[in-house]
Amino acid sequence: TEHVIKNIQGITGSNFTVERGRQHIEEIISTWEIHERWLHWSEFLQEEELEHSKRYHYRACWSVPTRRKPIPRAAASTYFIIEISKTKPATSPAEIFFTLESSRLIHRPEKCVFREKWLKDIIENKIILIERL
User: Fold this and answer.
1) In sequence order, which residues have a C-beta less than 8 Å from that of residue 106 and are 6 or more positions away?
2) What is the pTM for the complete model shown?
3) Are 93 and 12 within 8 A, CB to CB?
4) Burial status of residue 84 (CB atoms within 10 A of its CB: 0-12, 13-18, 19 or more)
């Protein structure tokens, strides 16, 4: 079933800028049901030129700082791609995908409900690995 992202205006090739893309990702993230203790920051990583499109890569890095540990032991990343078609009209909506660190599964924000558990699992696995080393 389609997951409707409420009150978010789509981004198109004609109104796209790198900063507008980052802001759009922030709007998508704001619709996710994540506890307020999770903090994140987002950044633009790179532009990728393809034959029929341009891809813009971004990362959102997540952690749960606490009073006892204001610098968390581990963080989790979500990687976003905004793809602008070169063959469709400039007014066509951009394609947006995201993946989670350590996963190959590609998600579309409008077709899935983000799970806070995904972030927890990444961080827990990192902490287990750190403790083993």
Assistant:
1) 97, 98, 99
2) 0.90
3) yes
4) buried
Strand order from edge to edge, sheet including 39-49: 39-49, 53-63, 76-85, 95-100
Give the chain's largest Cα–Cα span.
52
Gap between the Cα atoms of 116 and 123, Å rounded: 11
Calpha distance 75→39 (Å, rounded) = 10
| Listed residue (26, 84, 92, 13) closest to 59, CA to CA | 26
CB–CB of 98/76 below 8 Å? no
Tell me the β-bridge partners of 47. 56
Per-residue pLDDT tens over the stretch 22-61 = 999 999 999 999 999 999 999 999 999 999 999 999 999 9
Of 69, 97, 93, nearest to 81 by C-alpha is 97
